[in-house]
Amino acid sequence: MRALLIVAGLLIALVLPAQRVSALSTDGAQLFDLHCAGCHPNGGNIIRRGRSLKLKDLSKRGLDNPEAIATIAREGIGQMSGYGDALGEGNEIVVGDWVWLQAQNAWTQG
Ligand code: HEC
After folding, report:
1. Torsion, Cα of 100, 39, 72, 102 (10° steps)
2. CB within 6 Å of ligand 1 — which residues?
3. Domain edges within the chain
4. pTM (2 decimals)?
5. What top-level class would CATH report for the domain 22-104?
6. Rounded to whole angstroms, how far apart are CA atoms 88 and 79?
7. What is the pLDDT of residues 40-90, one digit of tens each?
8. Of 4, 84, 99, 104, which is least surrounded by CB within 10 A?
9. How far apart are the CA of 15 and the centre of ligand 1, in A?
């Protein structure tokens, strides 16, 4: 019985940190789905149609780089509020990089 408890304890100790790591290492796609896709499905914009995350629209306003997109994700722009707090520190860079990659690929990679 005691041995079982020790084994169980060891298993829990092994499994818990692994779960924690996977929860922390959220990638750009997950962040986008969670915080952006509601208004920008597939890189579009359901509120202001001309303000999509597609290369053509981003270029028009000089937002065609990952830094500009990250800044908007954090601070917002015009009618869009900022998501810095919701995203968590540093994650605006992760999501900005991901959005920029999608824009360059015309949002064909999901
Ligand atoms: C509640 C709806 C909403 C959410 C959620 C949202 N946005 Fe926006 N976004 C907008 C609106 C509306 C605009 C147009 C703002 C304006 O110019 O008035 C916009 C504009 C943008 C632009 C500029 C696009 C252009 O062509 O000018 C970028 C980049 C952007 N959003 C990125 C993001 C990212 C990244 C996220 C997630 C962290 C996000 N948005 C979440 C509504 C939203």
Report:
1. 0
2. 35-36, 38-40, 45, 47-48, 51-53, 57-58, 61, 63, 69, 72-73, 77-80, 83, 87, 95, 99
3. 22-104
4. 0.82
5. mainly alpha
6. 21
7. 999 999 999 999 999 999 999 999 999 999 999 999 999 999 999 999 999
8. 4
9. 38
